[in-house]
Design a protein that fits this description.
Layout lengths: L4 H18 L4 E3 L10 E4 L5 E3 L4 E4 L4 H18 L4 E4 L6 E5 L10 E5 L4 E5 L2 H15 L6 E4 L2 E5 L5 E7 L7 H13 L4 E5 L1 E2 L2 E2 L8 H4 L3 E2 L17 E2 L4 H13 L3 E8 L4 H6 L28 H17 L4 E5 L6 H5 L1 H10 L9 H19 L3 E5 L12 E4 L4 H8 L4 E3 L2 H4 L22 H5 L10 H4 L2 E6 L9 H8 L2 H10 L7 H18 L16 H8 L1
Helix pairs in contact: 2-3, 4-6, 8-11, 10-11
Length: 561
C-alpha cells in the first residue's frame, strides 16, 4: 500500500519532535581551576557526578543557615546553567548534593568538597565554611547555559589564610543605592571576602541617619554642587548632590551581608573629615561657622573641636546609634588626615591641652596628643558597649589607644610598628590596595582617577606579612583589605570597572598561602571568572587582561559616566 507523503512527513516530524523532547541537555564538564585556588585538589579515577534538572540539594534539618545555603546554591546554578534544582532537609544520600557540618578543622571557615559518581558532599566546620564550598562548586561549574554539569570525581580541602578579608566602599563622596550596595556585597561573596568596610561620612556628605541629630542628614547629606575634573580645577557642575541611608535601610544591608557571611564594618570618620557634620551643627567646630558641605575633594582644615565637651558627647551619641545598627565586633572611627591648624589657634582646644597636661616632644606635638585623647574617648565608649575600634594609620599620632586595631594605609610601616607593639593590624597599603588608583599606564585612555598606579599584577604580588616581623609579631597581622574611594567614581558601573578584576587578585592574596601563588597560573584561571562577571552583567576592565581584546577607551568612558 502506498504511503501518503504528507502522512509520512507528519510521522517523521512527530517522531523527531518526540526524540528531541526526550533528549537531555548537553553536558559541560566543570573545572576546579578557580579563584581563589583551593589548598588541595586530589582527583580520582571514579566516574563523574552529573548535576541535572531535579537534582536535590540536601541540608541538615532545623538549620536555617544551611537551608539558606542550599537555596543559594540552587539559585547560583540556575542563574549560570538554567538547571532547576530542589532543596530538601534530610540526611545525606546518594544522587544528591549534600551539605553537612561534620568537617573537623581548627579553621572555622574551612570546607571540603568531595565528588564521586554517587554524590557531591560539601562539608564545613561552620555554615560559613559550607558557603565557601558552595562558591567553589559554583565557580567550578562556570557559565553553561541550558546545560547539565559534569562534576569530576575529586576531593578538595580548603581554608583561608586570613580571618579578616576586607573590601571597602566610600559612599560619602558619591552615593550608591541600596540595590547597588547589595550587588557590591554579591561581588564580595563571589570572591570569598568576609568584611565590608562601609565609609559613611566625610567632608562631602553624611550618609547615615542619626536620630538624635537629624540635621546630619537633612543638612549634612547635601552639597550645593560638585567640582568637575580634578579637585583643584576651580570648575563646578552647579548641580545639588545628596543621598543617605535610613537606619532601617542600613539594617537591611547588614542582614543581606550577614546571610552571605559578610560582616559590615561601619566607619564614622573622626575627628577630621567632619565638615558635613559641622555644617549641620556649627557649634561642633572650632570657629562656629558658618560652614558648607564641601564641594571639592581633599582634606578640609575644618574639624571637630576637641576642646568642646558637646563634641565629645556628640561622638558618643553618634557611636551609640551606630552600634545599635551594626552588630560588628569592630566600629571604624577613621582618625586619618585631621589637620591641627584650627586646634592650634582654638582657645577651647588649647585649654583642653593645658587641662590634660599635654606637651610636645620629638615624636608628637601637643595637638597630636589631643587627637589621641579624642580617639581614646571614642575607644573607651565603644569598649564599654562590648565592641572594639579600628582606625587608619594616623590613630598612632599621640600614641596608639590601648585596644585599637590599626588599618595600615600609609605604606606598611605603621602596620609593622603596631604589630611590634602587639596591636592587631589589617594591611591595606595604598601602593598595593587602593583600587581607585589607575590600573593601566596609559591614563589618557582611562576614566579619570585620583592618580597612582596599581595594576592587577601588583595587587597579586602583595605579601601582607612583612619579613621584618618575628614569629610572634606576625600573628598580629590579622588580614588584608583593598579600598575604593569615590571622589572620581560617580556611577556603579565605574565602581565595578575599578574593582574587577583586581578583586580576583585580592582574593588570592587574602585566601591563599604564598607558596600557592603564581601569577601566570592565576591568569590562566581568570577567564573562567570573568565569564561569570559578564554573565552577571557586571562591568569589568577587560583591556587589562592579556587574553582579552582591549576595549575602546571612548566606549569605556561613555559606558561609565
Amino acid at each position: 500500500m502506498a504511503i501518503n507523503p504528507y502522512l509520512k512527513l507528519y510521522c517523521m516530524l512527530f517522531v523527531g519532535a518526540a526524540i528531541a523532547g526526550c533528549s537531555e541537555k548537553p553536558v559541560v564538564k566543570a573545572d576546579y581551576g578557580i579563584i581563589p585556588l583551593p589548598k588541595t585538589i586530589v582527583a580520582n579515577s571514579e566516574n563523574s557526578f552529573i548535576i541535572k534538572d531535579g537534582t536535590t540539594i540536601v541540608f541538615p534539618e532545623n538549620n536555617p543557615g544551611m537551608q539558606r545555603n542550599a537555596e543559594f546554591l540552587a539559585s547560583y546554578l540556575k542563574e549560570q546553567t538554567g538547571l532547576k534544582l530542589k532543596t530538601k532537609a534530610g540526611e545525606p544520600r546518594d544522587g544528591a548534593i549534600c551539605l553537612t557540618l561534620d568537617l573537623q578543622n581548627d579553621n572555622t571557615e574551612a570546607y571540603s568538597l568531595k565528588s564521586d559518581k554517587n554524590r557531591i558532599t560539601i562539608a564545613g566546620t561552620s555554615e560559613a565554611g559550607v558557603f565557601y564550598g558552595i562558591q567553589a562548586l559554583r565557580k567550578s561549574a562556570g557559565v553553561a547555559e541550558d546545560s547539565q554539569i559534569e562534576i569530576p570525581a575529586a576531593e578538595i580541602n580548603d581554608a583561608p589564610r586570613f580571618a579578616y578579608r576586607g573590601m571597602h566602599l566610600d559612599v560619602a563622596r558619591h552615593f550608591f543605592t541600596i540595590d547597588e550596595v547589595k550587588t557590591y556585597i554579591d561581588m564580595l561573596a563571589l570572591h570569598n571576602i568576609n568584611r565590608f568596610h562601609w565609609h559613611l561620612s566625610d567632608d562631602q556628605g553624611w550618609r547615615i541617619e542619626i536620630k538624635k541629630y537629624p540635621k546630619l542628614t537633612s543638612v549634612g547629606s547635601k552639597r550645593a554642587e560638585t567640582v568637575v575634573g580634578m579637585w583643584n580645577s576651580g570648575v563646578y557642575d552647579g548641580t545639588p548632590y545628596g543621598g543617605f541611608y535610613t537606619q532601617e535601610e542600613a539594617k537591611e544591608i547588614v542582614n543581606y551581608a550577614t546571610e552571605r557571611y559578610i560582616t559590615v564594618i561601619p566607619e564614622i570618620d573622626l575627628p577630621g573629615h567632619m565638615q558635613a557634620a559641622i555644617t549641620a551643627y556649627p557649634e561642633l567646630g572650632c570657629t562656629g561657622g558658618p560652614y558648607e558641605v564641601w564641594e571639592t575633594w581633599g582634606v578640609s582644615d575644618q574639624v571637630l573641636c576637641a576642646g568642646n565637651d558637646s563634641t565629645l558627647q556628640f561622638i558618643k551619641d553618634v557611636l551609640a546609634e551606630i552600634i545599635e545598627i551594626f552588630p560588628s565586633e569592630y566600629i571604624h572611627i577613621g582618625g586619618d588626615e585631621c589637620p591641627k591648624t584650627e586646634w592650634e589657634k582654638c582657645p577651647k582646644c588649647q585649654a583642653r591641652i593645658k587641662a590634660l597636661g599635654l606637651t610636645s616632644d620629638s615624636k608628637h606635638t601637643k595637638e597630636q596628643r589631643l587627637q589621641s585623647f579624642v580617639i581614646n574617648t571614642a575607644e573607651q565608649f565603644v569598649n564599654s558597649k562590648g565592641r572594639k575600634i579600628i582606625g587608619w594609620t594616623e590613630i598612632m599620632e599621640g600614641g596608639l589607644s590601648p585596644n585599637a586595631t590599626l588599618m595600615s594605609w600609609i605604606g606598611e610601616s605603621g602596620g609593622i610598628e603596631a604589630a611590634q607593639m602587639h596591636h592587631d593590624v589589617i594591611m591595606t597599603p595604598m601602593d598595593y590596595m587602593y583600587f581607585n588608583f589607575y590600573q593601566a599606564k596609559d591614563t589618557e585612555k582611562e576614566p579619570l582617577a585620583i592618580g597612582g598606579y596599581v595594576p592587577m599584577e601588583k595587587v597579586y604580588g602583595f605579601e601582607p606579612v612583612p619579613e621584618v616581623l618575628n614569629e610572634e609579631e606576625r600573628t598580629y597581622i590579622k588580614g588584608v583589605q583593598a579600598n575604593l574611594w569615590t571622589e572620581y567614581i560617580q556611577t556603579f558601573p565605574l565602581i565595578q570597572y575599578m574593582a574587577l578584576p583586581r578583586m580576583a587578585a585580592l582574593a588570592e592574596v587574602q585566601w591563599c598561602d604564598p607558596s600557592q601563588k603564581n601569577y601566570q597560573d592565576f591568569l590562566k584561571r581568570l577567564p573562567r571568572l570573568t565569564a561569570l562577571y559578564k554573565h552577571l552583567g557586571w562591568t569589568y576592565a577587560k583591556h587589562v587582561l592579556p587574553e582579552e581584546a582591549a576595549a575602546e577607551p571612548d566606549s569605556i568612558r561613555k559606558a561609565l559616566r
